[in-house]
Amino acid sequence: MSFIELKHINKKYENAERNSVTDFTLSIEEKEFIAFVGPSGCGKSTTLRMIAGFEDITGGDLYIDGVRVNETAPRDRGIAMVFQNYALYPHMTVEKNIAYGLMNMKVPAGEIKKKVDWAVKILGLEEFRYRKPKNLSGGQRQRVALGRAIVKNQKVFLMDEPLSNLDAKLRVSMRNEISRLHRELGTTTIYVTHDQVEAMTMADRIVIMKEGVMQQVGRPMELYEHPVNKFVAGFIGSPQMNFYPVVLEDNLLKFADGSRIAMPDVMLERLGDRRGEMIMGIRGEDIKLDEQNMELYQKDRQHAVVENTEVMGNENNLYFTFGGSLTVARVSKYEISQIGDAIDFVFSPLKMHFFDKDTEESILK
Amino acid sequence: MRTKSEKRFDWILTILLLVLSVFFLFPVVWMLANSFKTDAAITADMNTIAAFIPPVPGGGFFENYISILTNTNFLRYMLNTLFYAAILILCGIVVNGLAGYALAKIRFPFRERWVLLILLLQIVPMETIITIHFLMIAKVGLLNTVIGYILPMIVNPFNIFLFRQVFISLPDDVYEAAQLDFCSPVKYFFTMVLPMSKTVVATVSVFTFLNVWNDYLWPSLVFTSSDLLTAQIGLNSITSNDNTTMGQTLAVITMVTIPVIIIYSLFSKQIVEGVTSTGSKEG
Fold first, then answer.
1. Shared-domain flag, residues B86 and B151
2. Fewest CB within a 10 Å sphere: which of A44, A123, A171, B129?
3. Of B19, B48, B67, at which residue does a domain stop?
4. pLDDT in tens, A298-322
5. Interface with A, mutate which of B174, B181, B188, B191 (most A CBs under 10 A)
6. What residues pair up with A36 in beta bridges, in sequence order?
7. CATH no., domain A4-235
8. Above 90 in pLDDT, residue A204?
9. Which residues on chain B are in Cβ contact (under 8 Å) with A146?
10. CB-based contact (8 Å) between A89 and chain B?
């Protein structure tokens, strides 16, 4: 049995029409860092709160370290949690906030001091240890919340969108800090976020959820390169994957605007005998404007007019309409185009994704 | 930015309020000034500006106060009242606070109806139910006891409502964090909820103190022993005594009034915050 087992977990709130979480099954190994990701209302926080014990489990079984904990009180589940709004005790100093749990656990004073010293040092909070939360910045508060979680030596860390209240720069540094802490402490961590970048950069495995249903679980690059459905493909990656309604006839891929691309045999093989209407998806970085690729796929060269550009510094995003859909191409910073420029481009045919037009499930083998 | 006309309006309003406050202060100043005088001096100064000016401090300046404190039980009555107020503040915070917490944070059937019912209780005047209180206390043999005086005064619908309104805005995740920090619900109430709601605790304490300090009817019914009487009853018995001089009467009234003024001055900010914050849902 894995360290944490969620077996067919369901959650239905009183008077709700549908389940908030449906048939959620997942095994989490010890020391693993797993991220639950999905849009608002997808059930990721509800699942985390069921693991914490703050929400009742309507159906299914939850095991932590081999023990079924469905009816166990939160304090007895061996978990520590970091909340989105920090949930610090406003009338206590940083030191007291961190020590409070240990004091209630009746840990000897000397040991509490040692642990608090260690936590404030590891989190860079030495100079703030006698301050109250209202006198700390968002990042410092989040570090106190982390400190409160790490001193208790619990089996599992649960983090509920801990960085969502921080500004972009601080979020990046806290991301690194949490990853470093996880490497150093090796505590099994479940991290909830709606930010796929956080999930991609921090997690060993990612669980993608939509409307209470797990869509896919896997390593970050596995989800990026082999999404099981259009939702996962669209959710992971920035800018979002481009989607086109297409018709595949023999080896010709026909777009809504009449454009055509000849499909290579490898892709046809992966599509088996699937032909007809489907959805094609391709990531921005797999739309090529460079000479080398242009020569390679000479016959399938396409044309468009740039409608908008986003200069990111290290790369550029070009927006144009193709195949009846707004398309974004992610190109290198050296490929400079202006709004109104006519451009030629090709798709990397081996990087295309295909989805059933009705079920939106991937149809690539 | 405020415009010129808005600033002018502020000035006019400030001056108007200052004049009004001086107008309301006159009786207090008169009382204070005359409490240091003999009856002859009070009569002589009547209808002159000297009525508002205290005598020059010297021998016999505090004569009225000293005679009241030494010749009557008034000091005892004041200390009694302070003692009752202290107990009622403590019990009131615990009982009304717990009720307010339950109504704010614990889910149970008809919770909102209960809140409404408690609010409705607030419109029932104390005088209409005081006979029932008296009969109950008499039936259980608690007349002329401190417990008999305190028991019916602990539960206060208005204080429950104040607590509830403030507790509603306390973030739930702090409770969840405390649970994971091995904090029991009772400990959470005393070590987290109350310290996080200092303003409303201060407001309720002040209101309770003023209630007890100014209460006349209930202690006059419950207490018969002079050892247990409160300041207001003491004030009445001293001032209605024919041997009490006008100066002594004013000294007693001053002693009864001053704690109220001090409490209001010290806690006016908390009272305003406490009452105004009850409409806020900001976490």
1. yes
2. B129
3. B67
4. 888 999 999 999 998 889 999 999 9
5. B181
6. A192, A207
7. 3.40.50.300
8. yes
9. none
10. yes
Domain end, chosen from B67, B101, B116, is at B67
**A 314-353 residues with CB below 8 A of B?**
none
- The answer to whether residues B55 and B77 belong to one domain is no
The answer as to CATH 2.60.120.600 being correct for domain A242-355 is: no
Residues of B in contact with A161 (CB under 8 A): none
Tell whether B27 is within 8 A of chain A (Cβ): no
Is residue A322 within 8 Å of residue A302, measured between CB atoms? yes
> Between vectors from CA A230 to CA A227 and to CA A231, what angle results, nearest 5°?
90
SS3 B128: helix
What is residue A79's predicted lDDT score, i.e. its pLDDT? 94
Range of the domain at B155: 72-279
Do B24 and B44 sit in the same domain of this protein?
Answer: yes
CATH of the domain at B213: 1.10.3720.10
Question: B120 and B181 in one domain?
Answer: yes
How far does Cα B265 stand from its chain's mean position?
12
CA distance B171 to chain A (A): 8
Q: Where are the domains of chain A?
A: 4-235, 242-355
Give me the pLDDT at residue B280, please.
39
| Calpha distance B123→B114 (Å, rounded) | 15
- Element holding A342 (H helix, E strand): strand A342-347
Give residues with Cβ within 8 angstroms of B49, minimum separation 6: none
ipTM confidence score: 0.85
Same domain, B106 and B132: yes
Q: Alpha-carbon distance A127 to A199, whole Å?
A: 31
